[in-house]
TrEMBL record:
One of its GO terms (cellular component) is membrane. The chain crosses the membrane at residues 26-47, 147-166, 200-224, 236-260, 346-363, 375-397, 404-423. This is Solute carrier family 22 member 5-like. InterPro entries: MFS_dom (IPR020846), MFS_sugar_transport-like (IPR005828), MFS_trans_sf (IPR036259), Sugar_transporter_CS (IPR005829). It comes from Sinocyclocheilus grahami (Dianchi golden-line fish). Residues 97-533 form the Major facilitator superfamily (MFS) profile domain. Keywords: Membrane, Transmembrane, Transmembrane helix. It holds the Pfam family Sugar_tr. Coiled coil: none annotated. SUPFAM superfamilies: MFS general substrate transporter. It comes from the Eukaryota. It is found in: Membrane. It is a multi-pass membrane protein.
């Protein structure tokens, strides 16, 4: 069948489809179906906090002839963060201990500090009180191999970086719907394959692939919702809908992990839950906007007529008319966001800001199981904290200037974490409350920075500018696991120190050209946040 060619401006799409109304059954059902997918992204994005958790451990003493007294005494005590605890990486020379035991000495009769120390040559013994099995306990990712745990976490975010770069191109070429479902299926299969990993290296390779398809799913679902939903639901979907449903998945994750404490079984459960999304293939349509951009007018009209039936309205005889194509704007490249002094400063500071916020957000999210108290409860509270953060930030953005709001949120995030350093370890509840308050601040910053950046750049550079900032954000999230890792040796880590020289955009028309952007009035705001994970 021959397709009529749609050459009109995409801006007229809302006018052409206005007959559908704003909140008919077609849009409402589609709104909830797309949001349901974000529950899966919440489930899958942070399971590494449980899969990669490090149980309490010490050197294994491979000698069944030693008394219980000597077995306990074979592990030296060491001072860690002001607390005396059994060493996790050293033991007294087993040969010497055997000789002393054979001679009839008890540990109380010997100066143990005179005995030579040795590494855990026989491996480690792990506590199963909280976790039955993790990748740490299975592959001995402790002591000299401890760096492999944050590296494994970083591979997910490396995948995010690749997925962010290619998902847009793939969905533009093959369609939103196909890439959406391909990503959903690929993610489930990758997580399932990951559960059968027989080595740390294979686990990391598969985790990289999980990250690539996971961010592709997130972005494609976001674009699909933005293009298909009505204007009123589109705004709610992009501001609160996706974020809140992501939080639901995030909150369910620790509940599942609490019930399934073996890492392989946990991944298989998470992968298996994706089965519930299979019916969506018959319920979620292709984006009519994308079909129109490909000249597939009849297919786009068929979707609109089906939507009209569900909304119980009459569709016009001709939905998308043919008319003159819009003139093409000049092509812009990365060089254009670096061309002038003002735009160069704005771009550089935005890159730093996105990177810092991602380090703070993902650093705190990944650190929940390392806090004192129940790790499952801590993760749940961390997820719950995001719900009011998204709601408050969305409400404030409707009536408050962006720059002071963003600055305040960053001060909240970093300030509470700075106060955390003054809290004694015995006050576990207060320390947890301060960390959750810090997470609240960084989550709100996460929400604001997207809108602020979009407002800072003119239309001709907006996609390019946000794309560059998103890449910087991925670099920040890749770094986050190492911030936690370094925090063990450096209790106070400075992670945000930057000057913001940016335009005040609230209450003004968004800049359309480079010239308008350079005329914006600039302000200097110095934000210093000291964060410790």
């Amino acid at each position: 069948m021959n397709q009529k060619k749609y050459t009109g401006r995409m801006g007229n799409y809302d006018e052409d489809t206005a007959f559908l109304g704003q909140k008919g059954p077609f849009f409402v059902i589609l709104f909830f179906l797309l949001n349901a997918v974000y529950i899966s992204t919440g489930l899958h994005s942070l399971y590494t906090v449980f899969v990669g958790a490090s149980p309490s451990h010490h050197c294994r003493i491979a000698d069944g002839n030693l008394s219980e007294e000597w077995l306990k005494a074979s592990i030296p005590n060491e001072m860690v963060n002001g607390k005396l605890q059994p060493s996790q990486c050293w033991r007294y020379s087993l040969e010497t201990v055997r000789k002393l035991s054979a001679l009839g000495y008890s540990p109380l009769e010997v100066n143990l500090t005179d005995i030579t120390l040795e590494t855990c040559v026989d491996g480690w013994s792990y506590s199963t009180e909280i976790y039955h099995s993790t990748i740490v306990s299975e592959w001995d990712l402790v002591c000299d191999s401890e760096w492999r745990v944050p590296f494994a976490s970083s591979t997910l975010y490396m995948g995010y970086l690749l997925g962010s770069l290619v998902s847009g191109q793939l969905s533009d070429r093959f369609g939103r719907r196909k890439v959406f479902f391909m990503s959903l299926v690929a993610e489930a299969l990758a997580i399932l394959a990951q559960s059968f990993s027989n080595s740390w290296l294979l686990f990391c390779v598969l985790y990289f692939f999980v990250g690539t398809v996971q961010i592709s799913l997130y972005i494609t679902a976001f674009v699909l919702g933005s293009e298909v939903l009505s204007k009123s639901l589109r705004v709610f979907f992009t501001t609160l809908g996706a974020s809140l449903h992501y939080c639901i998945g995030y909150m369910v994750l620790p509940l599942i992990a609490f019930a399934v404490r073996d890492w392989r079984s946990l991944l298989r459960v998470l992968s298996g839950l994706t089965v519930v999304y299979i019916p969506l293939w018959w319920l979620i349509p292709e984006s009519p906007r994308w079909l129109l951009s490909q000249g597939r007018l009849l297919e786009a009209e068929a979707i609109m007529r089906e939507a009209a039936k569900k909304n119980k309205v009459s569709a016009p005889a001709v939905i998308f008319s043919e008319y003159e194509a819009a003139s093409q704007n000049s092509k812009y490249s990365v060089l254009d966001v670096l061309r002038t002094r003002d735009i160069r400063k704005t771009t550089f500071l935005c890159l730093l800001l996105w990177m810092a916020i991602n380090i703070g957000y993902f650093g705190l999210s990944l650190n929940t199981t390392k806090l004192s108290g129940d790790p499952f409860l801590n993760c749940f509270l961390s997820a719950v904290t995001e719900v009011p953060a998204y709601m408050v930030s969305t409400l404030l953005l409707k009536s408050c200037p962006r720059r002071p709001v963003l600055s305040a949120f960053l001060v909240i995030g970093g300030g509470f974490l700075l106060l955390l350093q003054l809290i004694p370890e015995s006050l576990h509840t207060l320390a947890l409350a301060l960390e959750m308050a810090g997470k609240f601040g960084f989550t709100m910053s996460f929400t604001v920075v997207y809108i602020y950046t979009a407002e800072l750049y003119p239309t001709v550079l907006r996609n390019l500018g946000i794309g560059m900032c998103s890449s910087a954000a991925r670099i920040g999230s890749i770094t986050a696991p190492y911030i936690i890792f370094l925090g063990k040796s450096c209790p106070v880590c400075r992670i945000i120190l930057t000057n913001m020289l940016i335009c005040l955009t609230f209450g003004k028309v968004l800049p359309e050209t480079l010239e308008q952007m350079q005329k914006c009035k600039r302000y200097v705001s110095c934000i210093v946040c000291r964060c410790c994970f």
